[in-house]
Amino acid sequence: MKIYVPLDSAAKALGADEVAEAIVAEVARRGLAVELVRNGSRGMVWLEPLVEIDSGSGRLAYGPVTPQDVPALLDGTLAGLGPVEAIPFFARQTRLTFARCGVIDPLNLRDYEAHGGLAGLRRALEMTPAQIVQEVTDSGLRGRGGAGFPTGIKWNTVLGAKAPQKYIVCNADEGDSGTFADRMIMEGDPFTVIEGMVIAGLGVGATRGFVFLRSEYPDAIKVMNAAVQIARGAGLLGADVLGSGRAFDLEVRVGAGAYVCGEETSLLNALEGKRGVVRAKPPLPALEGFMGRPTVVNNVISLATVPVIFEKGATHYANFGLGRSRGTVTLQIAGNVARGGLFETAFGMRLGELVNEVAGGTATGRPVKAVQVGGPLGAYMPVSKFDTPLGYEDFDAAGGLIGHAGLVVFDDTTDMLGMARFAMEFCAVESCGKCTPCRVGAVRGMETIDRIARGDAAAVPILTDLCETMKLGSLCALGGFTPFPVMSALTHFPDDFATRKEAAE
Ligand code: NAI
Ligand code: SF4
What we know:
Layout: E1 2-4, H1 9-13, H2 16-30, E2 35-37, E3 51-54, E4 59-62, H3 70-75, E5 82-83, H4 88-91, H5 109-114, H6 119-125, H7 129-139, H8 151-160, E6 167-172, H9 181-188, H10 190-204, E7 208-213, H11 218-233, E8 249-254, H12 264-271, E9 295-299, H13 300-312, H14 314-318, E10 321-322, E11 325-326, E12 328-335, E13 341-346, H15 351-358, E14 368-373, E15 380-382, H16 392-397, E16 406-411, H17 416-430, H18 436-453, H19 459-473, H20 477-481, H21 483-492, H22 494-504
Parallel strand pairs: 1-2, 6-7, 6-9, 7-8, 12-16
Antiparallel strand pairs: 1-3, 3-4, 4-5, 10-11, 12-13, 14-15, 14-16
Helix pairs in contact: 6-10, 6-13, 7-8, 7-10, 9-10, 9-11, 10-13, 17-18, 17-21, 18-19, 19-21
Bound molecules: 1,4-dihydronicotinamide adenine dinucleotide (NAI) and iron/sulfur cluster.
The site of 1,4-dihydronicotinamide adenine dinucleotide (NAI) has 27 residues, from helix 8.
């Protein structure tokens, strides 16, 4: 019998280690022959710790499991959830990027290969660099960090740049509130990130890579470092990748926790040992990136999606999706929801279906008031926009953004003026200080919202003006996108601003 208990940090925060210890002790006491596997998470966070038992006829799920449940779990008397794949939240998904996450032992390369791992790289090794880049272009993959820039065009720019050394940088500085897809895949399927980086290196002619990983993710750091060691030992990384005569190696570098270091040029400065301030673009990192050399900077999910594109073919991937948003989106559902977690689906599902049906509405049972999509710089989407399909262009047209695909749900008790103030405060705290609209504007923004809260109606047009200035004049997305949450709160929930005014009058 095999028992799976996730090592994912969300599962651990909910008691997975204690459950694993209780299982080991009880199995020893009973003298049972059981193999305990610490897998990644299946992404159903409200069911964690989600334990799976495989007695030879499929994996049956139990959750949330406590250490006290373990005797009944082993007796077979604990009420279960049935096969994992049949749980409605899971059954509705299209898992391409996350296909192996939660299924395999994350640090078992043989398990990885047995589930399709390395098939993409083996195919890429038969291709020329131009063919590799063309495959990514044909898949329609766009940057999953937030900007949605076509990955194939980025790779092509680096491929065409002439330089003695090029680099692949994996942006694992996942800083958006309510997001965890990067962390979850690094903890649950680290080899897919490594494989994606190797394919990127072969495609653009880079032989070195870095994973820039935030210090707040100690478990992901541990798993990624262990995976890199195993990959080197197995010849997946090094001077002779899988005996091909081609070289690629990478190392994990840990960031110090600044949100702005998720911005690619600030990240590159930090990687070079400098202060994490934003660089002006141009030059693009694709032409002058790490140490002034052509560099692909891609988000974890973009790189982790590359292996499945090569394994199944660009057309297979591109056949999912909507309009120019091809493939799947790895949504992270958080906040006040009944069922939070990682939900991978083809682009095109409507926001309302996701929030009301998949996530089951709010955890408090109260009506949904707003959903912030795209992290702390994303717009608050009101219920009236719930028919917006998940797609880059569709969200743009609705005044929002998909960003890194995080969703934070709020119920009707939420004070939207307070949320607008929080956005300005977040920007003020995290600003790198390089440009005035952001450095000064965010502080003035907090003060202006405080004036509105005190009943000063004349401050509303000042806030609108300030947002326009920040949007147009900021050097990077931190200052430039902070107006999204602020203006969406003001536009869609004017009562929350007016109520304060009336109360003060
Ligand atoms: P951007 O639009 O300036 O650039 C997108 C990417 O395309 C960059 O890597 C850029 O270098 C590259 N690029 C543009 N033109 C190119 C060309 N001709 N050839 C090659 N490469 C080219 O956007 P930026 O500032 O990189 O990202 C902003 C986004 O980041 C926002 O949409 C926001 O949602 C997201 N974000 C994500 C966070 C997270 O935790 N994942 C945190 C904060 C923001
Ligand atoms: Fe720095 Fe803010 Fe300007 Fe970005 S917008 S460069 S974070 S000061």
